[in-house]
DNA sequence: TTGTATGCGTTATCAA
DNA sequence: TTGATAACGCATACAA
């Protein structure tokens, strides 16, 4: 900026204002400055700007991991919404470790981000580090895996609905003993998916059988084990609603290994619409989580928070509608669905 | 820092030095300062520090995309190596778009990163934006998809070797008409994989048949099309070496749709060791790209560059050894492999 | 071993 | 409409 000022014989103040399109600068001067800036390939120093203004144009993102399709897609949505507003993002992974999660937050704090987007790690059981962030006035929005309480801003999938429509679909396909592979119940997402499952059972007048609910960390291997365990029951299930795609896949593979036909002997559905659901044999029915919308909604909410500048802001929870993608692994009665030939039939889009 | 200085009755200079473990500060004072800093939960302002020192502790990463397993794993390796050296990373996606790639580099520049790690987008055909970076003295390391030329620092997989061992393996399994699904030849990785394929053919005395090489962008749908096209040849192939897993998967599915047995009628191998290779039926043979090591190596190289401070530094290329993971999709002669029962048999680890 | 003074690049304030 | 000046938080040359 000093160079430009010298060359044009004006002050850096004028340069600064011209570049940020300040109203007090005449159009002629603005033209000149901006042209010269382009010529010299001027790059603003965001650090200096952030230092002076006390706020940067950076948003921090903390995700449990990036593998798979869900989080990258969410991050993509975030990037889109952020860049539209002139922001950039820093991505950190907690690798499902609360210690790393805390360290990530410190990193973001000292990078002077304008706000933080968090999806909690699986091992996050207390929330002090988030309180610390808030006490420093750092705008904070959770997504997908959210902190409990009324005081949090969050964007979530309606996981209860996801569990509900999955289970209802299975019931509609004639299944009567529906098992559930459930995740850690301290995480909202898994608790709600289970609740939707129970709601659908109750609505249909089917009994709740605790033997049919298997709790695990939802990994592939645990899906294998869970299915094995379920099939040893005196009265084994005719369907499995898994709260995650990895364990659904494990269950699917183990079922076939046992010589069971899917979906005829046991119908299987997953959750997340991971890429591989279109690759398994049979293709895996799953719930799409509106990943990209989730990212965009989270950033929009965060930007509102930032613009409110710590002023009065009543916490908001945005809830997105899940979408059941019915595929072969649960389609016992294809004639019920005219479009059943489609590989990724959307049964419910409201 | 000012608060701490006041409370301890010393200058901010002392605080600054004590916190950065400067030799001129006595151990007693260091203790006191660091304790108080913890008590007040002091967070250094990295922007201010970066502004003053002219360099930050941030590394910029530009990847084409994050979906799948390869890039997240590379990034994980980068995070690990970076945090060991006190650095953090900013991740940007170019989404295979050179326009976005350029914008990302601008963003990173103005975020005052200490260095940049780039894997080029598929649409990057000229390299001016990288020259611009270099002309500003910004340390730059490429990984996986690298710029051509002697003047670049880069970490790559030995893709030629990957193509070579894949093809050799197929030859060893008795295949004689081996097709190749090739990617855009302006990208080093695809050019080299093809070269390895040709080398192995030549070594085995097999003819090169250009009809057996199909060029595409390596997407799933293009794998489907390519296989269809290949099977229409008067003399169709008995094996397919695909330079990517997505198109390998497409080929695999199309082959089975046509009623071909895999690997008996046509053996298929892919490249990248994506997660889904363990899910397909049959499981897909693929080349592992040492993703995590690649990330670590790239950061190590970048840090060396940064520490050299623009001084003399002869450009270096690090090349990693690929690993062929033989699975059912190419295993015609299992008796050749004692450990063939393993789902992910490592055939060649040198 | 500690302190004083200064500047990194930008922008807000106040004055012209 | 423009400019002079100070300040953001930190690190360092120099002095003590």
From TrEMBL, chains A, B:
The keyword Transcription regulation applies. Keywords: DNA-binding, Transcription, Transcription regulation. Residues 1-53 form the HTH lacI-type domain. Signal peptide: none annotated. The keyword Transport does not apply. It comes from the Bacteria. This is LacI family transcriptional regulator. It comes from Hymenobacter monticola. The lineage of its organism: Bacteria, Pseudomonadati, Bacteroidota, Cytophagia, Cytophagales.
């Amino acid at each position: 900026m000093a160079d430009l000022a010298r060359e044009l014989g004006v002050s850096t103040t004028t340069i600064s204002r011209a570049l940020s399109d300040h109203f007090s600068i005449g159009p002629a001067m603005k033209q000149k400055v901006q042209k010269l800036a382009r010529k010299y390939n001027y790059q603003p120093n965001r650090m200096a700007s952030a230092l002076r203004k006390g706020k940067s144009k950076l948003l921090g993102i903390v995700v449990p991991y990036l593998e798979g399709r869900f989080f990258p897609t969410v991050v993509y949505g975030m990037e889109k919404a952020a860049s539209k507003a002139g922001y950039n993002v820093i991505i950190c992974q907690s690798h499902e470790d609360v210690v790393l999660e805390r360290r990530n937050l410190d990193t973001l704090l000292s990078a002077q981000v304008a706000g933080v987007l968090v999806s909690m790690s699986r091992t996050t059981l207390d929330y002090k580090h988030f309180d610390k962030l808030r006490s420093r006035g750092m705008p904070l929005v959770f997504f997908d895996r959210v902190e409990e309480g009324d005081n949090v801003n969050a964007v979530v999938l309606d996981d209860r609905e996801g569990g509900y429509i999955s289970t209802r679909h299975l019931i509609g396909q004639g299944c009567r003993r529906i098992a559930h592979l459930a995740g850690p119940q301290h995480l909202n997402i898994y608790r709600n998916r289970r609740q939707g499952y129970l709601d659908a059972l109750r609505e249909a007048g089917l009994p709740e059988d605790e033997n049919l609910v298997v709790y695990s960390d939802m990994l592939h291997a645990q899906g294998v084990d869970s299915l094995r365990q379920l099939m040893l029951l005196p009265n084994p299930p005719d369907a499995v609603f898994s709260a995650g795609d990895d364990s659904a896949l494990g269950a699917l593979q183990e079922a076939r290994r046992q010589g069971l036909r899917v979906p005829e002997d046991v119908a299987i559905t997953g959750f997340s619409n991971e890429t591989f659901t279109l690759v398994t044999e049979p293709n895996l029915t799953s719930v799409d989580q509106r990943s990209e919308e989730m990212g965009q909604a989270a950033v929009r909410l965060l930007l509102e928070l930032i613009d409110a500048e710590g002023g009065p802001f009543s916490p908001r929870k945005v809830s997105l509608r899940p979408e059941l993608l019915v595929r072969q692994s649960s389609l016992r009665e294809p004639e019920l669905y005219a479009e059943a030939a489609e590989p990724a039939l959307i049964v419910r889009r409201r």
